[in-house]
Write a structure and sequence with these properties.
two-stranded antiparallel ribbon, elongated, 4% strand, mainly alpha, 74% helix
Length: 161
């Protein structure tokens, strides 16, 4: 039996490779393409049926389901508005307590806004430091009320805008 297998392999190896004409190749490719096209011939029909099913399913939703969907959307919108109002109220409260303009605060909670306001006030204190200059041996410091009144005027203008 092993000898028969070896003989068959050698006979196959001795046979010359077959060459195909262009017409034969075109025919083979055409057959293959027609088989593939046959697999997906009803694709458009299936897609149309799926679209019809989706439309029918939407139309068959009960009035209760439609009302529940609308209520869910409205509830989400209401929750977003409440979060926005709560954040605005927190910013206004911290602004009134610290003197930092509310439009500079971006936190969502009162604690976040308080931390931001503290950071802004610390930065402002660092910026308002004037170097001490010696003039005739006397130490002069920056006028405290002039800088604070300037800042108060700027803050007031920002609040009014």
């Amino acid at each position: 039996m092993a000898a028969e297998t070896v003989n068959q392999e050698t006979q196959q190896a001795e046979q010359p490779a077959r060459t195909f004409t262009q017409a034969e190749v075109d025919a083979m490719i055409g057959e293959r393409l027609s088989r593939e096209r046959a697999k997906y011939a009803d694709y458009d029909q299936l897609k149309a049926r799926a679209d019809q099913f989706t439309a029918q399913e939407e139309a068959s939703k009960s009035d209760l389901q439609k009302a529940l969907d609308k209520a869910g959307k409205l509830q989400a919108e209401l929750d977003a508005l409440k979060r926005s109002n709560t954040a605005r109220d927190a910013r206004d409260k911290v602004s009134a307590a610290t003197g930092v303009p509310a439009n500079l605060l971006t936190g969502e909670t009162e604690e976040d806004c308080k931390a931001q306001a503290d950071a802004i006030l610390a930065w402002r204190r660092d910026v308002q430091k004037y170097p001490e200059a010696r003039d005739g041996g006397e130490v002069h410091s920056a006028p405290a009320d002039g800088a604070s009144s300037l800042w108060a005027g700027i803050s007031e203008r920002l609040r009014n805008n």
